[in-house]
Amino acid sequence: MRRSIASWLGVLSLAGSSSALAQTTADPSACDDHDTASLIQAIEAELVTLRASPSEPRITMGKRTLSNQAYVDRILIPIQKAARVGKSALCKLLGRQLKLQPLHRRPGHVTAYYHPIISGSRTAHGSFQVPLYRRPSDEVLAHKTTQEILDGALSGQDLAIVYVDSLATALHVHIEGSATIALDDGSEVNLTTDGHNGHPYQNPIRLLIKDKRIPVDFPAEQGKSKTQSFVAAHPEVLREYWNRNPHFVFFKETPLRGTGKFGELIAGRSIAIDPKHVPMGALLLLKTHVAIHSDDPSITSKPIARLVLAQDTGSAIVGPGRVDLFVGSGEDARVAASRTSYPGELFLLVPKRKPAQSR
């Protein structure tokens, strides 16, 4: 059963939402720091799905409920049309027709994820020995734990889609949820998640760090963090900690690079959220920082105030203030994904009540 926004939000005070909107719309750069083309594209990705079930409830605010069609007509299409005109028109629309509903009392936690491009092979040979598996049709196999799978429970079942060069690379794809595999025959295949084995999630890297297994003086390789360098150099330690995370992800091939609930994810606009607290497909305003690469060591991040859409989920994305921002592909995206971990504010955009007409 779809949960209403009222139950998601609980009884939240709207104090401060008007001032937040005023700060956001006073300056076009503060209203939205990203390009409008990506916003138009991200909204377009949702329209077909929402219009296919026009009467289905999308959000409920007190006694008011917006169906999919009403949400498209009153929120998504006006924003998309204003974005086509330009940033100033977008900011004016935000100030005049919409208001911000805070989704959590305290600052949330914002991370980032990206779509890596990784070398691999269709067959196991040379350095390519670690499989990424498709979901088994046998439900007994589909519920094997990580330790059982790493010990060979799926071997010989013709379930490997591709092979990558290390456990560290495989875990990286599991965490990011999608990847493009540049195959050794010159072709490419895009992978996205196809569910998991049903076991609870534990972040093996966090467990390793918590146990202080990485020596303080361990050298970091060029372009890698100390943690990445350590797990690459010590696959036996990585396997030990991955075994402690029973949750295992399966994959499938897709024509798209980075997929969510509405198709291809849009860099800088799509976010992963906890659908128990944030309605899927909702248009939101996100205020936070994103890590960047800079030649100036004193500059490690940039602030953002940006319209985003809830188009993905993740096992580690739990709670009303937990957000994972999709940042695309490439080196800048890798840096953002590996280093972004900041507090943030998340606001749901809802239509203002129309003033009652005088008789």
What keywords describe this structure?
Barwin-like endoglucanases; disordered N terminus; 6-stranded mixed beta barrel; single chain; 4-stranded mixed sheet; 2 domains; alpha+beta; Ribosomal Protein L25, Chain P; globular; 359 residues
Explain what this protein looks like in three dimensions:
- A hairpin with a 2-residue loop joins strand 11 and strand 12.
- The N terminus is likely disordered.
- The strands form five sheets. A six-stranded mixed β-barrel has the order 4-16-13-15-14-17. The protein has a four-stranded mixed beta sheet with strand order 5-8-9-10, with helices on one face.
- It is globular, with a radius of gyration of 22 Å.
- The protein folds into two domains: 198 residues, Barwin-like endoglucanases, CATH 2.40.40; 139 residues, Ribosomal Protein L25, Chain P (Beta Barrel).
- The protein contains 13 helices and 17 strands.
- Helix content is 32%, strand content 27%.
- Helix 2 runs antiparallel to helix 6 and helix 4 packs antiparallel against helix 5.
- It starts with a helix and ends in an 8-residue tail after the last strand.
- It has 359 residues and is an alpha+beta fold.
Listing every helix as H and every strand as E from the N terminus to the C terminus, the arrangement reads HHHHEEHHEEEEHHEHEEHHHEEEEEEEHE
Mean pLDDT: 88
Classification by helices and strands? alpha+beta
Could you say how many structural domains there are in total?
2
Choose one word for the global shape: globular
The CATH superfamily of the largest domain appears as RlpA-like domain
Biggest sheet: strands, sense, closure?
Answer: 6 strands, mixed, barrel
What is the helix fraction of residues, given as a range?
25-40%
CATH class of the largest domain: Mainly Beta
CATH arch. level architecture of the largest domain: Beta Barrel
CATH topology of the largest domain: Barwin-like endoglucanases
Rg, nearest Å: 22 Å
Strand content: 25-35%
DSSP summary: helix tally: 13
Low-confidence stretches: 1-26
Distance between the termini: 41 Å
The neighbouring-strand order within the major sheet is 4-16-13-15-14-17
Number of strands: 17
